[in-house]
Amino acid sequence: MLAALFAVLGPGAAWWVEHVDKVPLDGKDAVTGKDRQDVLDNARGRLAGIAAGLLAAAAIFYTAANAASARRTAEAAVRSSEASERTTQAAFHSAEASQETARAAVRTAAATERGLVTGRYTAAIDQLGSDKPAVQLGGVHALAGIADDAPDMRQTCIDVLCSYLRLPYDPDPGANGDPSARKAYRAFREVRHTVIRLIGNRLRLSSNNPHSWQGSDFDFTDVIFDGGDLHKSVFSGGTIDFKGAQFASGTVNFEEAEFIDGYVSFKGAQFTGGTLDFTEAKFAGSDISFEFAKFFDGILNFEYAEFSDGEVQFWDTEFSGGHMNFSYINLTGGILHFLGATLNGNTIDFRDSRFSDGSIFFEDTEFADGTVSFDNTTLTGDTIFFKNSELTGGTVDFTNAKCQRPPSFTRQDLGILLPTEWHNS
Question: Could you tell me which residues come within 8 angstroms of residue 248 by beta carbon, excluding any fewer than 6 positions away?
């Protein structure tokens, strides 16, 4: 650019004067002096104007060219964006179609699975309804498997298993009974005990396990029990109903079981033999009711159990035989409540237990026979209450209890055996 300007304003101006303006600059006719300088300056001015015009035209052309290029680039970008959008929309529609296909496949699979589960359930019910114990066992395991695999069917399967236990059940004919009858009894007993064992197996699983049955309801109403293994089962939530059940023989094992925030009812149950064993069980927030239960024989064992909350209720309960063992229990909360109970030939043993909190109420209770022993029991504070109770026979013995006289012991006419130091307190 600088070279062009130099050429125009230098030699170019002289060339223009001689060839365009026809003014001689050399020879005898050449202009000189001030006239020569004026002619050259005039030429230079015109040449500068022409050069400026040319430069402006070039700039306009260059700008127009750039604008056209930018427009073409923008138009290409728009076309590319539109194409991309069309591609995206096509992909979206394709994805929607794929999702709908997947949803349809899931619905089809779910329907197929429901059909398979329904088929399995129907077959299991047929097996359970057989008159052959071996076939019934197959039905029991099949129902447990369905309950594991189909959580929405779990409670239904549990209800069916419990209803099987509620069916009429002939008692043990004994060693001297008819051999065929005893064989049949033992076969059907195996089916029943398998039901109880499978329930226990699932209740021992962690609540995070997909096959855990914790939180379910179990209806054992009027069931005749001659044993069963529920040790270490966890009853958290739900309702466990033994209402009207009969415990005739064998041991129903709740050793180390946990009862958390639920309800267990033995209302109206009858204990005519055998053992109901809660050794080392833990009760936290659950209520257990033995209301209107009748103890004629057998053992109710809470040895080493822990009570931190909830209530064990013996309301209007009749004790005419058997043994209740509360020895070595640890009562740090909750209530053992004997309300309107009648003790007539039963032993209730609290020996070596510790009561640091919670309460034991003997309210409107009649002690007609039998023994209630607090031998070597440690009591802290006002934890035992006798209210409107009557001692007409039997023994309530605090002789070797390790504690100060509870403030609630204000009556002197109960006939309770008290340590010598309590009489002076």
Answer: 171, 224, 225, 226, 272, 273, 274
CB 411 within 8 Å of CB 385: no
How many helices (H) and strands (E) the chain has is answered by 7, 25
Which residues contact residue 11 at a Cβ distance below 8 angstroms, ignoring those fewer than 6 apart? Answer: none
Task: Tell me the pLDDT band of 234, cut-offs 50, 70 and 90.
Answer: very high
Domain ranges of the chain: 2-93, 129-215, 220-425
Signed CA dihedral, 38, 39, 43, 49: sign only: positive
Q: Where are the beta strands (DSSP E) in 287-341?
A: 287-289, 294-301, 306-307, 311-315, 318-319, 323-325, 330-339
pLDDT tens readout for residues 147-196: 999 999 999 999 999 999 999 888 788 778 888 888 988 999 999 999 99
Q: Say how far apart CA 286 and CA 130 lie, in whole Å.
A: 38
| Cα distance between residue 244 and residue 221, in whole Å | 6
**Mean pLDDT lowest for which of 101-105, 134-138, 156-160, 240-244?**
101-105
327 vs 298: CA distance, rounded Å: 16
Token pair of 336 as six digits: 């053992």
CA distances from 397 to 14, 412, 416 (A): 145, 14, 6
